[in-house]
Amino acid sequence: MVAEANYGGRVTDPQDRRCIKLILSDFYCSDMISEENHKLSETGAYYVPSDGSKMDYVQFIEDKLPMNDLTEVFGMHDNAEITSAINRTNQILSTALIL
């Protein structure tokens, strides 16, 4: 329903809407409610926290979630992080050489 109604403001292409519905089907499912600490990633680094107060959720974010997003969040292989680091390093070094 979210993908159909309005996701991101202006998704009008039928293929884009179908893609959004598929992606959101992983996150909008009955398992999120029925399973305790439902896993959102293969490694289990990301999962649905137990019910609690606002402070419990804030504490969960501060203590349990990784400071830097893992590549699995974006559906990428771990080597994507290595490639990203190499590209960042090359960009920094090329800027230093220009100076």
Task: Give a quick precis of the structure.
This protein has 99 residues and is an all-alpha fold.
Would you mind describing this structure in some detail?
With 99 residues, the protein is mainly α. It has a domain at 1-34. The chain is built from 5 helices and no strands. The chain has helices at 2-5, 14-25, 31-34, 54-64, 79-98. The radius of gyration is 19 Å and the shape is extended. The termini are far apart. The relative contact order is 0.07. The model has no long low-confidence stretch (mean pLDDT 84).
Class derived from helix and strand content: mainly alpha
Shape: extended
| Order of helix and strand elements from N to C terminus | HHHHH
As a percent range, the share of helical residues equals: 40-55%
Strand count = 0
Q: Kindly, what is the distance between the CA atoms of the first and last residues, rounded to a whole number of angstroms?
A: 52 Å
Query: Which stretches of 5+ consecutive residues score pLDDT under 50?
Result: none
Largest sheet: none
Number of helices: 5
Q: Can you give the mean pLDDT? A: 84
The share of residues in extended strands comes to under 5%
